[in-house]
Amino acid sequence: MTTKNLALIGILAALGAILMVFRFPIPLLPPFLSFDFALIPELIGGFALGPWNALAIIIVRVLIQLIINGTNSMFTGEIQSFLLSCALILPASAYYLKHKTRNGAAIGMLLGIIICTVTAVITNLYLIIPFYVSLYQMDMSSILAMCKEVNPAVNSIEGMVLLGIIPFNLIKTGVNGLITFLVYKKISPMIHRFAYKR
Description:
single chain, mainly alpha, 7 helices, 79% helix, 0% strand
């Protein structure tokens, strides 16, 4: 861990935190899920610096978010963001570390997307949604009603998963992964020169 690596971790984490400010919902998908591009600098950092440095980027980004915005979810939103970033970036960057080719990057991201989507289903059903139901004295029917307002086809928890949580996470991770795939090779020489040149 060099001074340059620390600086790069800080820059990428700050960029991720800034990108999270510009999040927005996706039409027809649950309104409590918001799309952003913060995964791009985290993926770039993971590919360029490896999974352990990627973990540091994710942690610093979450801390910057808390400093800037605080929390309105008793930290569950930040925990969810941390878990899902780790579920995508760590498998993707670990695979790419062993297979540093375009195919390796693509397979690594595909692996991360699958793991992240499964993690999102589990954490939403057993962590985030139960917490909000308890915190705001709601019930599950209220959550489903929110989803049904934007997509009338959502009539059950299974429908929310199949028509909401899964497609949202596939779109978010897929778009962030595709942009990273397209830009990484163009900017990686600059990152490596900065991080590793003495």
